[in-house]
Amino acid sequence: MVSLASVILFFLVVPAIVAFVLGIIALRRIKRRAPRGGRSLAIAGVIIGLVVALGGTAFDVGVAYFATHTTSYDDLAPGDCVKRPNGEVVLLRRQSCSGNHDRQVFATLDDPAGDSAAYPGRTTLRTFAESECLLRFSALATDVPNRADLGVFFLVPNQKSWENSGNRRIVCMVGTRDGSSLTQPLPLAAR
C-alpha cells in the first residue's frame, strides 16, 4: 500500500508540480512578450498541474494514514487494541488502549498443526481457539474488574491465508459482551 503511494507521488504528483511551475513561468513570459497565443494552454497547464498535485497529495496522505492505523491481524501482539472486526478480517484498525477501544489482545498462539497440515476448517479452528482463549483469559484475568461484563473473542486464519502464507496465528481478544467500548487498558499480562 505504501509502495502504491510512492508510485503515485513520483509519477503523478511530482510531474504535476513541474507542470504547475512551468505553466506559471509560461504565463509570465507570455505576459512580457507581445501576445502570440499560448496563454490558454499555459493556464490549462497551471490548473491541471495544481488539481493533480493536490489530488495526488490527498491520496498519498490518505494512504499514509490508512497504513499507520491498520494492521494485519497476524501482526497483533498482546496489549494491542483494535476496533471490533466485522466479517472476514484482513486488516484491523488500531486504537489507543488508553481511550475508548473495542477489543484488547491478550494472547496469540499458533494452531498446533504442522506446516504441511491441510486446512482443518473454520469450525475446527474456532472450536480450538475458543477453548484456548477462554483458558488463557481465565489464567490472566484474575485482577480484571467487571469480569462478568467481558467476553472473549478470537480471530482465526482463513483457508487462503493458511495455504498461501502458512499463517497458523490465532489471536485472543477481550471486549464487552454488550458491544460498548472499553475505557482503559485491562490488566492482562501475557504469561
Topology record:
Elements: H1 2-32, H2 39-69, E1 70-72, E2 81-82, E3 91-95, E4 103-110, H3 122-140, E5 150-155, H4 159-165, E6 169-176
Antiparallel strand pairs: 1-3, 2-3, 2-4, 4-6, 5-6
Helix pairs in contact: 1-2
Description:
This protein is an alpha+beta fold. It is 46% helix and 17% strand. It has helices spanning 2-32, 39-69, 122-140, 159-165, and strands spanning 70-72, 81-82, 91-95, 103-110, 150-155, 169-176. It has a six-stranded antiparallel beta sheet. A hairpin with an 8-residue loop joins β2 and β3 (91-95). α1 runs antiparallel to α2. The protein starts with a helix and ends in a 15-residue tail after the last strand.
What's the short story on this structure?
Helix content is 46%, strand content 17%.
Spatial extent as radius of gyration: 26 Å
Mean pLDDT: 79
* Biggest sheet character: 6 strands, antiparallel
Would you report the number of β strands? 6
Record the strand order, biggest sheet: 1-3-2-4-6-5
**Proportion in helices:** 40-55%
SSE string: HHEEEEHEHE
Distance between the termini: 34 Å
Identify the notable features of this structure and list them briefly.
191 residues; 46% helix; alpha+beta; elongated; 6-stranded antiparallel beta sheet
